[in-house]
Amino acid sequence: KKKDGGDPVIIITDIGRDIDDAIAFMELASLERMCILNPLGVIATVAPELERAYLARVTLDSLGLSDVPVGVGSDGGGSAEVKLNSLSFLYDGEKKLLRFEPGI
Predict the structure, then answer these.
(1) 50, 16 in Cβ contact below 8 A?
(2) pTM, whole model, 2 decimals?
(3) CA distances from 62 to 33, 50, 66, 80, 93 (A)
(4) Which range, of 39-43, 53-57, 84-88, averages the lowest pLDDT?
């Protein structure tokens, strides 16, 4: 990802719940092209978080933002077993996803 254009930003999204996230991604693509924002990554959260991450990936790719990594966040706290304050990640180069899992 180029580092010389725009303010760095990380997006946290629950894409797929309603239309606002898709509109925000379109705005993000436009602002990135104008070198106003530099998207460093997107984190999809709230169950089903993995499916939301795939939707974010497809949406970003269709908007020309295929170099922006997508992370899989938490389920939003619905599971009592998820520690929301301690997360680690693994990179999946083929699908360009960062998988967040309970960490140390």
Answers:
(1) no
(2) 0.73
(3) 14, 19, 8, 36, 18
(4) 84-88
